Amino acid sequence: MSAQQTMKVFVTRRIPQEGMKILQKAAGMCNLSVWDSDEPVPRAELLNGVAGAHGLLCLLSDKIDTEVLDAAGPNLKVISTLSVGFDHLAIDEIKKRGIRVGYTPDVLTDATAELTVALLLATARRLPEGVEEVKNGGWSTWKPLWLCGYGLSGSTVGVIGLGRIGLAIARRLKPFGVKRLLYTGRQPKPQAQEVEGEYVPLDTLLSESDFVVVSCSLTPETQSLCDQTFFSKMKKTAIFINSSRGAVVNQEDLFKALGSGQIAAAGLDVTTPEPLPTDHPLLTLNNCVVLPHIGSATYTTRGVMAELSANNLLAGLRDSEMPSELKL
């Protein structure tokens, strides 16, 4: 392609201005087309928008499958996703076509860890129930056991997946007076020493933890990992928290475990599907707190994610090193 020719770039959503400014400055190199909305691009518009594109900037909610890649055609050389996760991308097909992929790890670690701790505390201390009681007139006189929950002081916390985010969660939980920090995963992590983490088998973690926090990647091994058998090994007083991926949990089994008193409560920032239907059984339970996948939702974090995804895209178009490239 000659220097005079511009490369077509399709952006599937209006992204934070930090990223848009970078893309707009590259107007001499890029013919920029943006689905200018806060809502997801309709499938037909995605297929039309990506036609002939050299670069694609997408979100976790955009399914980039063979149909989209075929619609793009042979020009497509880089896909930049404004996310850490990439299970919305047809990775095998993308690799086969020699398309490079940029993503945004690391930058949302702190925000997601903070949200996970907030979700754990809100679930364990029954904050949503308390707010509702204030609003509906349920708050009357002081009662010894009314709205009692579970505290972190002296507790055992189990983290499934002590990667970047899992470790950041553990760092934030330790100062609450956690007595033991257990973790499990493919192998022991040297950095676990920082939080005095004990590497244990999954069964041990489940049977001994007062709080079970899922922070692992979605893989064939972790798909529906948290099922009936999983919950049956937990304490009846245990709190379950998931801020990783919704598909790690069998939600029917979780509903049964919560409804039967097999476990005390659950807090979820991720579900299957997303958004969760308003008539979903989990939403009928007082002991289940569900958030709308807002782990990275701070202004700063989303701005940095947009900036990184824009720079990844431009680097890919220039055939230069990306700030953060997914190794296929």
Going by CATH, the homologous superfamily of the largest domain would be NAD(P)-binding Rossmann-like Domain
**What is the 3D form?**
elongated
Main sheet characteristics = 7 strands, parallel
The succession of helices and strands, N to C, reads EHEHEHEHEHHEHEEHEHEHEEH
End-to-end gap: 25 Å
Spatial order of the strands forming the largest sheet: 8-7-6-9-10-11-12
Low-confidence stretches: none
CATH class of the largest domain: Alpha Beta
Rg value: 22 Å
Could you say what the CATH architecture of the largest domain is? 3-Layer(aba) Sandwich
Fill in the CATH topology of the largest domain: Rossmann fold
Average of per-residue pLDDT values = 96
Number of domains: 2
Query: What class, by secondary structure content?
Result: alpha/beta
Helix share of residues? Answer: 25-40%
Count the helices. How many? 11
Number of beta strands: 12
In terms of DSSP E residues, the strand content is: 5-15%
GO cellular component, one term: cytosol
GO molecular function: glyoxylate reductase (NADPH) activity; hydroxypyruvate reductase (NADH) activity; NAD binding
Pfam families: 2-Hacid_dh, 2-Hacid_dh_C
Domain D-isomer specific 2-hydroxyacid dehydrogenase catalytic: 9-325
Task: Describe the protein's architecture and organization.
With 328 residues, the chain is of the alpha/beta class. It has two domains: 7-106 and 299-326, NAD(P)-binding Rossmann-like Domain (Rossmann fold, 3-Layer(aba) Sandwich); 127-286, NAD(P)-binding Rossmann-like Domain (Rossmann fold, 3-Layer(aba) Sandwich). It is built from eleven helices and twelve strands. The chain has helices at residues 17-25, 43-50, 66-72, 91-96, 109-124, 127-136, 164-173, 202-208, 228-232, 251-260, 299-317; strands at residues 7-11, 30-34, 55-58, 78-81, 100-102, 156-160, 180-184, 197-199, 211-214, 239-242, 265-268, 288-290. It has a seven-stranded parallel sheet with strand order 8-7-6-9-10-11-12, with helices on both faces. β3 (55-58), α3 (66-72) and β4 (78-81) form a beta-alpha-beta unit. α1 runs parallel beside α11 (299-317) and α2 (43-50) packs parallel to α3 (66-72). The chain is elongated, with a radius of gyration of 22 Å. The mean pLDDT is 96. It comes from Triplophysa tibetana. This is Glyoxylate reductase/hydroxypyruvate reductase.
